[in-house]
Each structure stands twice: as C-alpha cells, then as structure tokens.
UniProtKB/TrEMBL annotation:
The gene is NME9. GO terms for molecular function: nucleoside diphosphate kinase activity. It holds the Pfam family NDK. Residues 266-279 have a biased composition (Basic and acidic residues). Belongs to the NDK family. This is Thioredoxin domain-containing protein 6 isoform X3.
Amino acid sequence: MLSSKGLTVVDVYQGWCGPCKPVVSLFQKMRIEVGLDLLHFALAEADCLDVLEKYRGRCEPTFLFYAIKDEALSDEDECFSHKKEDGDDEDAVSSEKACTLAVIKPDAVVHGKTDEIIMKIQEAGFDILTNEERTMTEAEMRLFYQHRAGEEAFEKLVHHMCSGPSHLLILTRTEGTEDVVTAWQTLMGPCDPNVARREQPDSLRAQYGTEMPFNAVHGSRDSEDARRELALLFPSFKFSDQVPEAPLGLEAKGEGPGEALCSPEDVDKAACDQGEAVR
C-alpha cells in the first residue's frame, strides 16, 4: 500500500484506545473528491512496530503521511513487486472479474433472513469475496447516500440504515454473460417491495422487503457507483486496471470505513526510509 501512487495516510494508534474514528468520514469525503487512486488510508498499532516506538504512550492522534511522485513510482513499484513475488500473498484475494457492493439491510438482518439471502445469492451464480457484519454510523450513511440528500425520505433512510447491523458483501459473477452489477440489480428487483411483488415476485425485495425503505437489500447502481461505494465502505479494497483485490484475514481493531490495513513489514520499511510524522 505504501508504494501506491499519491498520498497514503497512516493512523498510528495506541492499542488501549484504538484508531481515531472521528476523522474517518472526513477522510472518506476527501478521498472521493480528490480521486480513489490518489488518496489511501492505513492503520498501524504503535506497540506492534519497533519503528513506531517514539509514538508509544501518546494520547493525541498521530498520522504519518507518505507521498509517492510519478517519477519515483517505477522504482518503488519494482521494489515492492519483487517482494510480492518472493512470498505468498496470503492477505488478499484477487479476481479478474468486476465486483459490486451488496448490502443486506438491518430490516432483513433483524428478522433473521441473512442466511437465506446469502444462499440465494450464491445459488444465483455469485461469488462472495467478503462478508462483513457492521452497524453503520449516521456520518457514514449521510456520505454514502449523499446523492439522495434532497429527497423527502432521506432522513428516514439514514435512520434505518443506522438502526442495527447490516451485512456488507463484495460480489463477483462466476457464470453467465450478464455483468455483475446488472445481475445483482436483477436479483434484487425493483426498489419498492410492492412494485417488486407485482413485477418480479421471485426477486429478493419481493420476498424479503416490506415497504420503503425496508426493502431488505441494497446494490450499486452502476460500475462507477460500485467503485465509489466499495472505496467508501472497504477502504483497503484495491483497484488496479480492473483487477480488484479484496482484503482477507486482516482485521482492524476498530470498526467502520476508513480503517485500511497494511502489513507491519511494509510500514516498518517505509517508515524507516521515508516517513515523516505530523501530529
């Protein structure tokens, strides 16, 4: 991650207090505005890395900033690519297929329908790269649904999405010629459950939704929207020439978007060579 073009911000936190959550929404908004490929985030626990020893025991937020310029990118890229080839990349799974975001909403989760919906998703020919249960914050949902801020039902939608845990899934398509975004939209059915029951009675919203906004599932509108939503809810999800990499096996000690991960070896090496702390 530290070899990525652009600016990488590392939140150096203490194990007893966890990452600095209040800045998450601000960082995510900045990332969407400046470009998903130009601003990246990561976490590093000071107690776990010797190179971060001087930051241990501090109670104030501490951030490290790493900038990679275009002319330096090729050398850095080569160094990291050789390192990756030498060892197994056990912390990420890659796919040459496009991905989209799927959310099983709180209304479906609270009624115990999560497992049924996941089974139907898999039976429909989707691969689930990541399945994470998370209770969303109001700030996250206001940013997530910012394109609907002018709608009358906006406040009710935000409140609903924060009312309990959701399941966040990254989907790929394993069979058929239909692209993953369109296929997921088809499986969900019309947004309004009442319309879905009339027009697509076999769709997920027809079966598990009740009324707006309690329509059981969410999906990205198109590939661009999928890219934005995945970057917002899964900051460590990487895009590289349409080859996505979803993190597996690494978990942040905190919760919520903005808490990207990098390996201790990468932080150790990069911090020694080029890190500059800003507190």
